[in-house]
Design a protein that fits this description.
This protein has 500 residues and is α/β, with parallel strands linked by helices. Helix content is 31%, strand content 23%. Strands 1, 2, 5, 6, 7, 8, 19, 20 and 23 form a nine-stranded mixed sheet that branches. Helix 1 packs parallel to helix 11 and helix 5 packs across helix 10. The longest helix has 25 residues. The two termini are 46 Å apart. Bound molecules: flavin-adenine dinucleotide. The site of flavin-adenine dinucleotide has 33 residues, from helix 1, strand 3, strand 6 and helix 5.
């Protein structure tokens, strides 16, 4: 895809920030469910796909099945339902093609600030065209921020004492060196999240040894990479209908598993332990390496497609060590227990740096917005910020399930405003305010490190950031657009025209 430049002066109905899976999905709904809205997606990178083009570490794949992580409107046609990044990228490229969205995407356009001006009833958007190095400006009635939730330029690495002494290579999965040759070398992976669980069995295929050092164990479950029911349905009903049914089945299973986990954590813990015992060699210390101190779904569960992770442990190519890294030495990693693990390569799978809303500064009538002072409305807008929506998906099931629902609410809202002749809409807290709490009830390290910098949520709908898909279907697809918490207005030129 070749970069293109904006033709100033430009005014849009909707600006979408980010051409990841969320931004592309929002663009589809905007195109399909509103009439004649002008919109563009501005994407800072030189390619679409966000997460799925950024990460290139060995084995990079989804944890979710693509019947739910893919779009409702575009059937998943591949053999495997847990998919490698390349397959997801191809799917996104195909979606852009099928939906004729190429002309709507401007690559290498980094949005640096969005400023709401009530006098004009629109956003003034500024940024940099990274191809030409030129500044650009445009105005837009709405900003839909689909800029993701983490920094692209820098993954998270804690300060490891002695890192400078290590004579081998240190690599962070977010900045993978494609030339890194790990065949027949000793690898230590630090971390226990989805990235470490993906990397470990993949590298173990050719490394001399792989040791995954984890401070805290994670729940890991074997899952077939291929969805047999979906394949049978495809043969009988064709791709489109099979996708719909497989998606409904998998949503149901994800939600059921999550709800049972929340209500009966001890039962689910026992069931996961039983599955782990079965998958590991006899006498393996399951209660040391597979026994997280938190309940299932306090953090995202990790998936081992076709049991790859357990197979690598069984065949001896992967070793798990549960301990604290106290520092690096010339030859490897020193642990709190006093043990030392020799390494030629250290992979710091230590996580992400959260960055809300793509890092663009937001002002409303000249005042800089401090996100921590704002409360999320229907999980997609913020009180006191007019004509602004954002894409944060589920953390307990496929991210995109939520994005589809909130994009549908967004298009309903635009149609509702058009019907009434309004051009400004702002969520407004009830008189007396709300008791608020952190935006996400999620224990992952990267969320906990940054939770204080995120907006807040209330304790009841519509101010709650819900993780309940079926509840969200009611709230976002079916409930009336106006519930008394939105202030609608006519602003700017349209106001002057109405008054005249
Ligand atoms: C390795 C990894 C694996 C994951 N696996 C899963 C999974 O299996 N299932 C699941 O549900 N979730 C998973 N997630 C979470 C995942 O990030 C989301 O599911 C989803 O890909 C996020 O898509 P997005 O479009 O919202 O954001 P992103 O993929 O982050 O895309 C955001 C885009 O916005 C652009 N952008 C950001 N700021 C600006 C700006 N200021 N101006 C212009 N452009 C901007 C970025 O360049 C990027 O292209 C995973 C995350 C990671 C890191």
């Amino acid at each position: 895809m070749s970069p293109a430049t904006l033709d100033p002066p430009l005014h849009l109905d909707v600006l979408i920030v980010g051409a990841g899976i969320s931004g592309i999905g929002v663009a589809h709904y905007l195109q399909a469910e509103t009439r004649d809205k002008t919109f563009l997606i501005l994407e800072a990178r030189d390619t679409i796909g966000g997460t799925w083009s950024l990460f290139t570490y060995p084995g990079i794949r989804s944890d979710s099945d693509l019947y739910t992580f893919g779009y409702e409107f575009n059937p998943w046609r591949e053999e495997s339902s847990i998919a490698p990044a390349k397959m997801i990228l191809d799917y996104l490229e195909r979606t852009v093609e099928d939906e004729a969205l190429h002309a709507r995407i401007r690559l290498q356009h980094h949005v640096t600030s969005v400023a709401w001006e009530s006098a004009d009833g629109r956003w003034r958007v500024e940024g940099e065209d990274l191809a030409s190095g030129k500044h650009f400006e445009l105005t837009s009635d709405w900003v839909f921020n689909a800029g993701g939730y983490y920094r692209y330029d820098q993954g998270y690495t804690p300060d490891f004492a002695g890192a400078e002494k290590f004579r081998g290579e240190i690599v962070h999965p977010q900045h993978w060196d494609r030339d890194l040759d790990y065949a027949n070398r000793r690898v230590v992976i630090i971390g226990s999240g989805a990235t470490a669980v993906t990397l470990a069995p993949t590298m173990a295929n050719s490394a001399a040894s792989v040791t995954m050092v984890q401070r805290t164990p994670t729940y890991i479950l074997e899952q077939p990479a291929r969805d047999r029911v979906a394949h049978m349905l495809r043969r009988l009903l064709g791709f489109r209908l099979a996708h719909r049914i497989a998606r409904a089945k998998n949503v149901y299973m994800q939600q059921l598993f999550w709800k049972v986990s929340r209500r009966h954590p001890d039962l689910v813990r026992k069931l996961i332990r039983r599955a782990n015992v079965k998958a590991l060699p006899a006498g393996y210390p399951v209660d040391v390496h597979f026994n997280p101190p938190y309940d299932p779904w306090d953090q995202r569960l990790c998936v081992a497609p076709d049991g790859d992770f357990f197979r690598a442990i069984r065949d001896g190519s992967l070793t798990i060590v549960t301990d604290h890294v106290v520092g690096f030495t010339e030859n490897g990693v020193k642990l709190k227990s006093g043990a030392h693990i020799d390494a030629d390569i250290i992979v710091t799978a230590t996580g992400l740096n959260i960055q809300p809303l793509g890092g663009a500064s937001i002002t409303v009538d000249g005042e800089t917005i401090d996100l921590t002072q704002h409360v999320s409305y229907r999980g997609m807008m913020l009180d006191g910020i007019p004509n602004f929506a954002y894409a944060i998906g589920y953390t307990n099931s496929s991210w995109t399930l939520k994005i589809g629902l909130l994009a549908q609410y967004f298009t309903r809202l635009l149609r509702y405003m058009d019907e009434h002749g309004w051009n400004a809409c702002c969520p407004t807290l009830p008189p007396g305010g709300l008791t608020t709490r952190p935006l996400l009830d999620f224990g992952a390290g990267y969320v906990q490190r940054s939770i204080a910098s995120l907006p807040r949520q209330g304790s009841a709908s519509p101010w709650l950031t819900s993780m309940d898909y079926y509840g969200d279907v009611k709230l976002l697809k079916r409930a009336p657009v106006q519930d008394g918490n939105l202030r609608f207005e006519v602003l700017g030129a349209r106001r002057k025209a109405t008054a005249a």
